[in-house]
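User:
I would dearly like some help making sense of a protein record. Take your time, and here it is.
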Amino acid sequence: MPPPPFPTPSTTRPQRQPHHESFHPPLFCAMDSRGADGAAGGADASSPADPRGPEPDPAAAADAMDARLPADLLRAVLQRLPPIDLARSACVCRAWRAVASDRAVLEAAFCAPWGVRRVVGEPETQAFWRIATLGRFALSHAVRRGDTVPGVALKYSVQVTDIKRFNNMMSDHGIYSRERLLIPISNPEILLGSTCYIEMDHNAKREVAVFYPEGRPGGKTESLANTVSAQRRSRRILESVRRSLHVDDGTAAYYLSVSEGDPRAAMIEYCEDLRWEQQRTGQ
């Protein structure tokens, strides 16, 4: 029997025809076609809009908010903020910064927690206004003859260590080289309705708002008081050296002048001269 004939192409399995109704173009082709249509005839009405929209401008939003808020109302609001929040509000916009940096607004925020009526003077830096704690205030005590650190601490109901730390004193004897002491505030009611003066105390090495219980001296009266106080202090030092060395006023004044007014250096210089004189006498 002859073998079956080899199947011809017409008798093979029919090829699958593509289904054109289910064909989708690639994504990049669709994007190119939409871009071309938009460039030719504008945006397609059937294409969805961007749900995010344009990014908001913070500066424009702040300017719009400032335009709706009157200047006097803004000042009244910022004056009631604590100093730290007032510093933060200065970062909102230029208009808020101008109001928050105003001297009257800074002073009002600084005085409000303690009921201070007024603060006179300008600090060295604007950072002074940001911390309105009791540590920024101090009482001024004029040192008088016979004053001691424990006695002053008892008078104002504060600790001796607080006075020494506040005035940068290593020992109680430092009171004799000071014209005044800064007393830390222990009772905030002392500041109610008071007037304080921003001063840099070079002995204490700190800038504080000083309250004068007996009134602040000013002008020529202050200069005269400082001169008299300096003379009294020099006289006390001279008397102390004279008694310690058992010498007369002239000798004590000489050794103080040699040691540039330092009592300890004057005593050391005198002891060295005395020792040298004793060695010479012994020889």
In short: The two ends are 159 Å apart (CA to CA). The chain has eleven helices and five strands. The first strand starts at residue 118 and ends at 120. The first helix runs from residue 27 to 41.
